[in-house]
Amino acid sequence: MKITRISVYQADLPLKKPYFLSGGKLRFDALDSTMVSVETDAGFTGWGEGCPWGVTYLPAFGRGIRAGLEELSPQLIGLDPRVPARINRVMDLALPGHPYIKAPVDIACWDIFGQVCGLPVCELLGGRYGGPVPIASSVSTGTPEEMVRTVEDFRADGYRLHSAKIGGADPDLDVARIRHLNAAQESGETIFLDLNRSWLPADAIAVMNQVRDLRVFFEQPCETFEENLQVRRATSHPISLDEGIKEMADLVRAQAERAAEIVNIKVSRVGGLTKAKLMRDFCLACGIKLLIMDTGGGAMSDTMTAHLAQSTPRDALIGTWDCASMLTVAASRGAAAENGHISAPDAPGLGAVPVMDVLGDPVAVYQ
User: Fold this and answer.
1) CATH for 70
2) Which one from 266, 275, 277, 289 is the annotated catalytic residue?
3) In 3D, which of 293, 345, 350, 340 has the Cα closest to residue 317?
4) Which of 25, 78, 182, 228 has the highest count of CB atoms within 10 angstroms of its CB?
């Protein structure tokens, strides 16, 4: 089997309401999604999506994916998509770095692999564990009262896991947010505090030690590995690393230095399912708990992350994320949130399909 054509599509995905994180410093109104179809001479077609969370959150942007695919795609024509590890090797040699560019191609190859085997992708990633996977709600930065109301709204829809975005210029306000959220937390719920790198170590240590009596965990308090390690050594709450985990070497270092008890693997950020699976399995071997998400996107992205989360043992998995429910436009269909949970489809491959009336014509075709 050989890849015969790679087609690239672009879709603007407006958010239902503006979204703030990093203490309100970062605002997002719409996402720029790139969808990729990989066609073969055997009649199989796989799909993948790459969608950075705006242009200021990470060193990634939508137009960058499409520019990078112009470089990569000619190198992939004629290769066998059923061997994603080899596809990744070719992409890494053809374009060092830039893992987010390669993710949609890798995901499309896993889609084809599953279709050929007649199995959903989660079965190829380790096997299906349990029932529906918990979804973390995404609570935008606001006043303590606004954030509690947002949690209550999500709770009414069945969510029991909540990611609350805090961090800003006023540490006392963050303490108030944390205490309000914790007081509103119900039995069986988990609320974690996501800083998205917004604190300096002094503020992180001060705030976390002021709430040491609360059972919470903090995600990516500071920008650099060294800063987060400093915080880890001066505080007692579990820490999750998110944006600081970009490649396997970052994960190995975090484990060696005992920098985190939890890791948030963002599949597109690390390069796709092939590399995310490797990192997931390392965490399982080392006793690190996991959040498994993507950087953004529609139902195709959510479905892809649902497969990796579904194939992760439940004692190690905290949850995943659903971005599609935050959007006003559906450019794909697949797994959907239901009562605060999501399940990987049973269909062979990813079980996600594009909505061609929304996507329109490809912006580029390589063959």
Assistant:
1) 3.30.390.10
2) 266
3) 293
4) 228
